[in-house]
Each structure stands twice: as structure tokens, then as C-alpha cells.
Amino acid sequence: MIVYFIRRFNLLVTTLFLLSLISFSLAHLFPGDAAINFSGQQSLTYQEYAKLTEELALNESYFVQYIVYMQRVVQGDFGNSFSSDASVLDDFMRVFPASAELSAYALILTAIVGLPLGLWAGVKRNSWIDKVIFSSATIANSIPIFWMGLLLMLLFSLNLAWLPISGRLNLLYEVPSDTGILLIDIALSNLDNKYQIYQDALRHLVLPTITLAILPTTILIGMMRSSVINVMATPYIKAAKTKGLSTFQIIRKHVFRNAILPIIPQFGLLFNTLMTSTMITEFIFSWPGIGHWLIEAIYQRDYPVIQAALLLVSSFMVVINVLSDIVHTLLNPLVRKEING
Amino acid sequence: MLLDVRNLTVTLKTENLEVNAIDKMSLSMREGSIHGLVGETGSGKSLFARALTATLSDKWEVKADRMFWQGQDLLRLSPEQRGQIIHRDIAMIFQEPGRCLDPTATVGEQLSEVIPEAECVSSFWQRKKEIYGKVSNLLKKVGIKHYQKCYESYPHELSEGLCQKVMIAMAIARRPKLLVADEPTDAMESTTKIQILRLLQKLNESKNMSVLLITHDLDSVTQYADEMTILYSGQSVESGSVRDLLKHPFHPYTEILFNTIPRLGDDLKPKSRLTTLQGSTPPLQHLPIGCRLGPRCPRAQKECVITPKSVKLKGHVFSCHYPINLER
């Protein structure tokens, strides 16, 4: 078991190393001067430039430069943003909670909708209910997410005027940012009209969450359905039927757990799609999150931000993937058996 | 009579094919006996068990003149009533027991869920302890010494023999009147096989639980069963008490079947051929009409294209136009 964890950890370290190499080389590959790309300081006097070059060891070999770069990364120094002139890490910490909040709600919605629907479709295989669920999932899967987001916006915000178009909160309200997670911040704040603020925040959440949840939900339905179909055909489900358990008991006690276990490692993959969709969704709904920040940075050729965001976001994804693998191992006795021989 | 099935026909219905996989088969069981159901692979033994427990899918159609379970015709009952009776009185164990247990739940969890709730007397907070006691008792009854360890194990950590014992424990939790054992010792080592069969025999004697032993292993049937029914391609060939059948088989197939078992002291020459029946069992798509043994039967004649009626004689029931051993 420990050997397994070490192997996983090894994979994590290797991947992170490669990512840092790519991120490091970007500063040299991007147009412009490497010193400026690394530090993000654009208007330098000659003395300042010489000092910076020495600090970053740019006259030394690439190897030394990489070591210096890694030292800065470990200290959390990613340079400054070209556009805001603030520290990139500070900017990142400001936008990250908004993205994390949105993705978390979308993930919860995905699990709440996707798992039961997939289970239902799998249990009632080839019935009309299965056909309805599966075909609508396939259709929803093939709709581009930005188009879907715009359609929802057109319908619910512009035509029906039920929900706000964009942003996290009405400009009327000023919630101090403690954790960066809006719903918690509102609770922590000492504003008097919390109820209205909550209502407003939730109304702002509805459309982005739904838009973001559509793609992962359809994928989850497909995975869950095929997994359930596999489980339903196994001898132990047939045996459980002769034991006199009701269909509901069989599904609750045997089908659900066995069907969900092989899906857990794929949750990592689901998270990857979720991450890319988050960026698109944030941009459509002007949600002040990582995606919005990164795409703005790309528009403005903000190289330090692009470089840092690449490293941070992809490390985050790799960590999540490895974590989902480890959780799967801890939960699934069959995998533990394979590991232990 | 515990179980009395007469002229059971199970039909497989698909879009381009309609076959009687079981054709007018009859079987009757006394209460408290071990009844062997013997036949080659594909002769419909397992199908019979599934037709009896009503676990066949919609593709199969079950018809019978009668299917009496303790005087009640199961086929005339509504599916719910039938399910209730089957659930109450009949339990089943399978081949490959390791695959019939949920791989992600411990043995204890799986046994706990089959303990009938009506039998638990203690209050809610003592329920867990009581169920644990009952489960350990069951495990002890099927002869598992390290029941504590077994309780906590996952199925893949146990041997096939232990898994089968767990399945048996699960089956007897409801105190069924009939245990249908569908090739319980298939692909097991011979020592484990004997253990399992002895256990079934013991349960049969001590709990007065009838056992329908479905197998292709003639040795185990002749050793442990009181009565037996032989199937060939979904038709019942002959049934009667095992000892009678061994001594005076009336159906040619029965005789050939018993002759295929090589015995010690049979004076077999080295490299000589063992006794077999020429040919192979017909596939479902190409079943011969009439007596399905016809093309392979050494005594077959013109009349055999008509399905023979079952004849009752000296305690045997057999279906053959030209029976053997009648002269004596």
C-alpha cells in the first residue's frame, strides 16, 4: 500500500517537474525580454535592469536560471502582472476562490443530477425512460457550452428577465472579501440586509452553474449508465435477486456502490473538462474567476500571468487527478487486492 | 409431495427463433430428500432451476400442466404471491460462488441483510449486536471455524469453498424448505467438493431441508442423492431412486450414462477407449423431432420420431419406446 502511494507521489512530482520546465521555458519563448517576462516590471532603468538580470541569473546557464526560477516559485514570487502591476500570486488568490466556488457548485449539481439519472437509465435499460435520458444526455453533450450559455442568457435574462446577465453580485452591495467565497463572505459580513444579498448572489449563480454543469453531467450520466449496466449483468446481482431482496434494496446496497467505484478515477478526467468549461463560462458571464483572468491576460499579452496561471492551474489539475486515484484505492477493496497481489 | 412438476415446457422466444429449451419435463420431489438433477451441459438443468424460482427474463416463456409446490400451483398464482412463496420457501446457491458475492461488501454485511427482520426481537439500538450473533451462528452452522475473521473479510479474500459455505449460510438464513443447488461444486478441488456436499447432506438431515442437487457430476449424485432425474436436451429421460436406477435402468441413455464412469477393477486395458455415446448433444437451433436422443440412441427405430410418453413402472418414470432391462 505504501509502495503504491510512493508510486503515485512519484508520478505527481514528475508531472509537476515537467510542468515547471514548460512554464520556465515560456519566459524565454515569449516575445520580449526574458528579464521583463520573468519579473513583469516593464519600465526599468538601466541599473534596475542590470540588477534584475543578476538576481534572475539570466547571464548564467539555463540550469542555474531554472534553479533560481524554482526558488522564486517556492517563495510564491511569480513576478508582477503587466496590466494590473500587482503581484501575480495576489491576483491569483483573489480570483481563485470565485472559480473554485463556481466549480464546486457545478460539481455538486452534476453529482446530484448525473448520478441518479445515470443509475435510473442503467437499471431500466432499453426502456423508454432510458432512451429519453440517454438521448437527451447525448444531445446536451454535443451542444457547445458557450452557445448554450448565450442561449440561456438570451432566454432567462434578456427575454424573460428572470435572472441577472452577468457578474457575481449586484453592484449595489459591497461585501468585504475575507475568504473570497461569496456565500461565506456574506455570512461573515455585518451587513443588515443579508437576506436580500443572499437572494441576489444566488440569482447570479443560477445561470453560470447550470451552464457549467451541463457538460460534466452528460458525461457522468453516460459513465454511470454503462457502469450500472455492467454491474446489473454480474452473477452477484442475479444471486442477490434470488435472496429475496427487493429491487430497491439491491440497487441501494449492491448496484450503486459497485457502479460508482469504477467511476471515481474518471472523476479526475471530469474535473479537467470542468476546468476548461469554467474558463469559457466565466468569460461569458463576466465571472471574476481564473478563466476570466487568464483569458484577459491572453488578450493583453500579459506574459507573467499566462506563465503563472499555466503552472498553477495545471498543477492543481494534476493534484486532483492523483487525489482521485488515491481515494479510489482507499475505497475499492478490489483495487487494494490487485495492489497487494 | 413437496414439489410436483408435470410436463414443464420452457420456450425461448426471439425474433427469428422459437425453441423449446425444456420440452415436457417432469420432476417430483419428496419432502426432506436430496434429489439429483443430472444432465449434460446445455440440457436445461439450470434453466429448470430458474424457471422454478421465476428468475427468467422476458425472453423465456414457462408453461406446465402443473407446478405444484406443497399442493399449490405456482403458475396459477399472481407474480407477487408466487414471489412471496418462493422467497419464503426456496433458496438457491450457484456455481462460482466467489462471483456471486458482492465484491465490495464484507461477508458480514452481506449476511446481515438476509437475516429476516421479523426474527429480530431486540430493540433498535441492540439490533446490530443481535444480528451479529445470528450471523456468527449461521457461519458456525456451515462449519466455518474462524467466523470472526470471515465476518470481516471481503469475498476475494476467501477461497471458493469458503465462499460457497457463505452462500449456503446465506441460503439457510431464511430456513427454506428447499435448497436449489445449481452445480455447487463445479470447478472445486475434490476435498472442498466433498466438504460442501457433506454439509448439504448434514443440513438435509438435521434441518429436514430438501435439496435439489443440479450437477453433471454423476459420482456426487450417486453418493449423496436419494432420488434422481436425468435430463437429455431438455427432455426428462428417467427418474427414480438412485439405487434402482443404478441397478435396473430402463432407459438406454441411463445405462450408457452410468457406463461412462470408469471404475476401479473394471479391468480396463491400457490405451483402450472409454465407453461413450457417439456424437454430441444437439444445439438449440437443430433439435431433432420426437425423442431428442434419437439420432444417437443405439436402440432407436422408426417410432422414435414421435415423442415417447412417460411410463411409470416399478417406481421409475421413464420415456422411451424401446426400454431395456424389462425382460427380467
UniProtKB/TrEMBL annotation, chain A:
<feature type="transmembrane region" description="Helical">
    <location>
        <begin position="102"/>
        <end position="123"/>
    </location>
</feature>
<protein>
    <submittedName>
        <fullName>ABC transporter permease</fullName>
    </submittedName>
</protein>
<feature type="transmembrane region" description="Helical">
    <location>
        <begin position="259"/>
        <end position="285"/>
    </location>
</feature>
<dbReference type="InterPro" id="IPR000515">
    <property type="entry name" value="MetI-like"/>
</dbReference>
<dbReference type="Pfam" id="PF19300">
    <property type="entry name" value="BPD_transp_1_N"/>
</dbReference>
<feature type="transmembrane region" description="Helical">
    <location>
        <begin position="305"/>
        <end position="327"/>
    </location>
</feature>
<keyword id="KW-1003">Cell membrane</keyword>
<keyword id="KW-0472">Membrane</keyword>
<keyword id="KW-0812">Transmembrane</keyword>
<keyword id="KW-0813">Transport</keyword>
<comment type="similarity">
    <text>Belongs to the binding-protein-dependent transport system permease family. OppBC subfamily.</text>
</comment>
<feature type="transmembrane region" description="Helical">
    <location>
        <begin position="205"/>
        <end position="224"/>
    </location>
</feature>
<keyword id="KW-1133">Transmembrane helix</keyword>
<feature type="transmembrane region" description="Helical">
    <location>
        <begin position="144"/>
        <end position="165"/>
    </location>
</feature>
<dbReference type="InterPro" id="IPR035906">
    <property type="entry name" value="MetI-like_sf"/>
</dbReference>
<feature type="domain" description="ABC transmembrane type-1">
    <location>
        <begin position="96"/>
        <end position="324"/>
    </location>
</feature>
<dbReference type="Pfam" id="PF00528">
    <property type="entry name" value="BPD_transp_1"/>
</dbReference>
<keyword id="KW-0997">Cell inner membrane</keyword>
<dbReference type="InterPro" id="IPR045621">
    <property type="entry name" value="BPD_transp_1_N"/>
</dbReference>
